[in-house]
Design a protein that fits this description.
The radius of gyration is 23 Å and the shape is globular. Strands 3-23-22-19-18 form a five-stranded mixed beta sheet. The protein is α+β, with helices and mostly antiparallel strands. The protein has 15 helices and 23 strands. The chain is 32% helix and 22% strand. Helix 10 links the parallel strand 6 and strand 7. This is Circularly permuted type 2 ATP-grasp protein. It comes from Gluconacetobacter johannae.
């Protein structure tokens, strides 16, 4: 009789018969509270798939991604110009209650960041009151004195924000970092949904999923809202560095979704303090620019004089109030990893509220106490350079060799202000299709917020998955992939 019970249990487990999540919170399988019926239905439907069928569908998805040109570039790999971002067919699912918590937390964080940026480029109250060390902000390489005293429309500096969120072993949402300069990845959110509905329609059938297709229209509307005063029909453009940029696919995709021209620096010209776009019919005024290149390359007259990507005179037109740039120049100081450590204080200072989403505990190595703690616990911490992104330049203590730790200790002592450290979080996992079958892999979530007169958060966001077994690094440039993010409306 026991053999019959075991076989029946295995049959019902199906795809997950060998699935194991020791010591990790699994976002699909081992929630502590009773899951809603819709989540239970997703698990049940997935369990009926077998591996050969799932692999066949995964192959079809990969071929379609390639044919659609949904790629990214890894500059450090000279042998692979364009890569397909690996896509996993098992979705990352959030309940309505979980999404409500995340959405409110992201809105709160974006509001506080915009208050912070206005303040540091105007009155600097938060620095004078000693909430944040002044040298941490004013000495930051991303602080732009050119922005001092400039009143951006609506007080909005961060029009597009990506907040990287993880869950710990108890399932709590924690903010890992903010992306307030030129956050990327939203195109994959939308394309992943389209791909999922084409390749796995039977899994999504009848489920009340929150839609993701309105992002482009929402973004265009927000950028029109913050156009210079007096403009009734603003011209919005997307400014790209060009075809060799790693995210060029996304630039093309978003321009199409927004219904706006995709331009490069050579397509724009400044005359008498106003920005124009070159067209076959002559010069056409431009009022809002969604820029996808960094501050240093925007205007060779102000920043990098060797830049061939930007627009001479753009900053002058910006300071005159004749054009809106999204995100604003100088927003990088708000997503610096050292400033991140002060975000809970920033929220309390400007909003008089407790943070809805907590930070991961962070030690600032520029401070003597933080450096001493990091050096004493290097083998137990994640140490990151404050200005890097993409998973570059960090060390994960428990996964490093002694030689790697010794080398990193030298770097840390040589330039402590360049680093922060955090504990290794027991990141949550999701079932993921791997070579050996369905296995647990670590995931994170990047919700995207769009701000004009108000802030709207795209339901779900980009779910990135660390495809290498045991890896905590989910970045695409470091071997990660992505999943469709489902937010259950009920």
């Amino acid at each position: 009789m026991s053999d019959l019970i075991d076989r029946d249990t295995a049959r019902r487990a199906g795809l997950f018969v060998a699935y194991d999540t020791p010591d990790f919170f699994c976002e699909l399988m081992n929630r502590k509270d009773a899951p809603p019926d819709s989540l239970a239905l997703v698990r049940e439907r997935l369990s009926h798939f077998d591996l050969p069928e799932l692999r066949q569908r995964a192959g079809a998805a990969e071929a379609e991604l390639y044919n659609l040109g949904i790629t990214f570039t890894v500059y450090t790999d000279r042998d692979a110009i364009d890569r397909i971002l690996p896509f996993d067919l098992i979705p990352h699912v959030l309940t309505a209650a979980e999404w409500d918590h995340v959405e409110r937390g992201v809105r709160q964080r974006v509001t506080a960041i915009n208050h912070f940026l206005w303040d540091i480029y105007h009155e600097k109250r938060i620095l004078k009151d000693g909430i944040i060390p002044a040298e941490l902000v004013l000495g930051n390489p991303n602080y732009r004195p050119e922005m001092e005293g400039l009143d951006v429309p609506g007080g909005v500096y961060v029009h597009i924000n990506g907040t990287d969120i993880v869950r710990d072993g108890d399932g709590r949402f924690l903010v890992l970092e903010d992306n307030a300069r030129t956050p990327s990845g939203v195109s994959y959110v939308i394309e992943n949904r389209h791909m999922m509905l084409r390749v796995m329609p039977d899994l999504a059938a009848g489920l009340d999923l929150m839609p993701v297709d309105e992002y482009g229209l929402r973004l265009r509307h927000a950028l029109a809202e913050v156009a210079p005063q007096g403009v009734t029909d603003p011209q919005v453009v997307l400014l790209s560095p060009g075809i060799y940029n790693s995210a060029y696919f996304e630039h093309v995709f978003l321009a199409r979704e927004m219904g706006v021209p995709l331009v490069e620096g050579r397509d724009l010209v400044v005359e008498s303090g106003r920005v124009y776009m070159r067209t076959v019919a002559g010069l056409r005024p431009v009022h809002s620019i969604y820029r996808r290149l960094n501050d240093d390359f925007l205007d060779p007259q102000v920043f990098n004089p060797d830049s061939m990507l930007g627009v001479p005179g753009l900053v002058d037109a910006y300071r005159r109030g004749n054009v809106t740039i999204a995100n604003a120049i100088g927003t990088g100081v708000a997503d610096d990893k050292a400033v991140y450590a002060y975000m809970p204080r920033i929220i309390r200072y400007y909003l008089s509220e407790e943070p809805i989403l907590s930070n991961v505990d962070t030690h600032i190595c520029a401070e003597a106490e933080g450096l001493a703690y990091t050096l004493a616990n290097l083998d137990r911490l994640v140490v990151k350079p404050v200005g890097e992104s993409g998973g570059y330049g960090l060390i994960i203590g428990p996964h490093a060799t002694q030689a790697e730790l010794d080398d990193f200790r030298v770097k840390l002592l040589a330039d402590p202000s360049n680093y922060i450290s955090q504990p290794v979080i027991s990141l949550s996992v999701c079932p993921t299709l791997c070579e050996a079958g369905v296995e647990a892999r670590h995931v994170d979530l990047r919700p995207f917020a769009v701000t004009g007169r108000s802030t709207w958060v795209l339901p779900g966001g980009l779910s990135r998955v660390a495809l290498r077994k045991g890896s905590l690094v989910v970045n695409s440039s470091q071997g990660g992939g992505s999943k469709d993010t489902w937010v259950l409306a009920s």
